[in-house]
């Protein structure tokens, strides 16, 4: 039986870089291919040759396809060649000599006759749109490179038949199986190219199938028998821009969702004071130095033990990243557990140092900490400092002052086997005790390099107390003024805890 000669698909002159086509009344061209010449070698339909220089290496492995024709070639090239399944020649519709284009389209359609269904296409700038043609999904996978912007999928493309078992029985599955196969092809293409725009091609009598394709994930559908170059070019540009917009909107929504989840997580990691039954009033302010974060390397906590003692703590892990924030949360939780277990002073800080040494990601990381335990009567307190600034104490009729810090021990994680002395402090009948991290005192004052420091903070708090500020209002005014003096947001985390006792 003679081998069928594959029908040659015409290449529009505007895409192949040749001279404009002859007018309709000029009649057909009399130039014929020499005897024995493959149609792909005809000078009027020149295509890229696999042996010529090209930008990317070409896969020349044969395509098995699903047809039964023998063809005349030996395989399917990713740019040019003859499919061994049907003998049909397929290639880019643009040659090497064509001018660069803004858009590249991959057409996936199964047309044994080789009749073109896509007219000449021009982009918005009037340049030809490059069209690559794939007869099946195997070819489409090879031709789907990063420079492809849009996929034209003919919904009439035959899907590979699924593996059948003896339980399936005979028969061809009926019309429902055919519908399922066509949508299965679309789903396969969407999985193959999740970042590409997809236009579905269907017949004008099957608009419902096109609507189903859009519901599955295509950007739009067009009627195959009503295509013209202007309509299709506009539809391609629209599909590409819509895909970009949908992708950007999806990424934005995913980013917002992650931010909300992070905020819920970080908010849940902030402490809830355990002061039930205590006459002391509590207030706190917290500002992480990291942008768009709720949690930084600073940490604090306040708990009341069954004997009536109120334990307060504030600390600072060196650094400002998420790892430091996570370590601060671990230290806070460990401090609460150890405090409720009855540990205090040097024994508690020594155990916390062991936790830090095991949990830190680098031996250079350390943490400062201030721990206060207030007696049940509220008149005395024990103070332990591990490289941390001393708390600020204010009492009626007296100027606010810093508690002694002569016996300040080293920061946690610096010296193995270190000790942290516990100092006894008299508070009195009515007082206010403010614990803070160094972010409150290391901000600049004005445009120079001068920093606020502890002395500047003490003077500022004294003035605000004289103005009658207390509790939350005092902390809010203090942090806001520090920001204003710094000329903007502070680079370091800021945590402030205020405990008040009234007579």
Q: What are its keywords?
A:
9 helices, five-stranded parallel beta sheet, 17 strands, 18% strand, elongated, five-stranded antiparallel beta sheet, disordered N terminus, 503 residues
Tell me about this structure.
- The protein is 29% helix and 18% strand.
- With 503 residues, it is an alpha+beta fold.
- A 5-stranded parallel β-sheet has the order 4-3-5-6-7. Strands 8-17-16-13-14 form a 5-stranded antiparallel β-sheet, covered by helices on one side.
- The longest helix is centred in the middle third of the chain and has 41 residues, at 229-269.
- The chain starts with 12 loop residues before the first helix and ends with a strand.
- Mean pLDDT is 76; it is low at 1-101 and 163-180.
The CA-CA distance between the termini, in Å, is: 112 Å
What is the typical, i.e. mean, pLDDT? 76
- Sheet of most strands: 5 strands, parallel
Q: In which order are the strands of the major sheet placed?
A: 4-3-5-6-7
How many β-strand stretches?
17
Percent of residues in β-strands: 15-25%
Spatial extent as radius of gyration: 38 Å
Structural class label: alpha+beta
- The residue ranges in which pLDDT falls below 50 over 5 or more consecutive positions are 1-101, 163-180
Overall 3D geometry? elongated
